[in-house]
């Protein structure tokens, strides 16, 4: 819509098939980010939302994202905070503290790694769209959405 070339991936063939039907203008393909990215060109941005906490080897995924980026590329990644209630989801196998993510992204080759913890109050947006705020702090409550955003730059 804005003139950008967009690729989108998922590990699920089913999800990719469904997404292609909904957004035919986007190039969807099956990709396990823990394995080398198969595309020959480099990306300016990689967005990874609520994925990394599900990976057995997040360091491999981080290295692969670094390799898939242009020289001045950026990764934006969201993941849950390391709170007790997050572990109730058995698929959350790589939940870490924010400072652990910083170390892991640096180990994966990123030079600049910023962490932003935010809180979203669920359902307020249903009353009015202006009530959909991100507060700039983390809250350890089960029914409040409080992710960590990792912004990693190659340079």
Could you write a compact summary of the structure shown?
The chain has 3 helices and 8 strands; from the N terminus they run E-H-E-E-H-E-H-E-E-E-E. It is of the alpha/beta class and 155 residues long. Strand 1 (7-10), helix 1 (13-22) and strand 2 (27-30) form a beta-alpha-beta unit.
Spatial strand sequence of the major β-sheet: 3-4-8-5
Number of H/I helices:
3
Q: Whole-number radius of gyration?
A: 16 Å
Q: Would you list the SSEs in sequence order as H and E?
A: EHEEHEHEEEE
> What is the helical fraction, as a range of percent?
10-25%
Average pLDDT level: 92
* Share of β-strand residues: 25-35%
Report on the biggest sheet.
4 strands, mixed
The gross shape turns out to be globular
Which class of secondary structure composition applies to the elements?
A: alpha/beta
Can you characterise this structure?
By secondary structure, the protein is an alpha/beta fold. The protein is about 20% helix and about 30% strand. It has three helices and eight strands. A four-stranded mixed β-sheet has the order 3-4-8-5. Strands 1-2 form a two-stranded parallel ribbon. It has a two-stranded antiparallel ribbon with strand order 6-7. The longest helix is centred in the middle third of the chain and has 11 residues, at about 60-70. The chain is globular. It starts with 6 loop residues before the first strand and ends with a strand. The model has no long low-confidence stretch (mean pLDDT about 90).
């Amino acid at each position: 819509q804005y003139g950008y070339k967009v690729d989108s991936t998922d590990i699920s063939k089913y999800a990719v098939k469904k997404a292609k039907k909904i957004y035919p203008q986007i190039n969807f393909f099956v990709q396990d980010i823990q394995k080398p990215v198969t595309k020959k060109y480099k990306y300016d941005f990689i967005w990874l939302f609520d994925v990394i906490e599900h990976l057995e080897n997040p360091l491999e995924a981080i290295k692969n994202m670094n390799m898939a980026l242009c020289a001045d590329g950026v990764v934006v990644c969201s993941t849950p905070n390391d709170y007790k209630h997050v572990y109730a989801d058995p698929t959350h196998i790589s939940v870490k503290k924010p400072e652990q993510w910083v170390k892991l992204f640096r180990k994966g080759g990123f030079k600049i790694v910023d962490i932003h913890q935010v809180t979203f109050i669920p359902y307020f947006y249903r009353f009015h769209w202006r009530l959909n705020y991100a507060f700039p702090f983390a809250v350890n409550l089960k029914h409040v959405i409080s992710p960590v955003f990792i912004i990693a730059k190659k340079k």
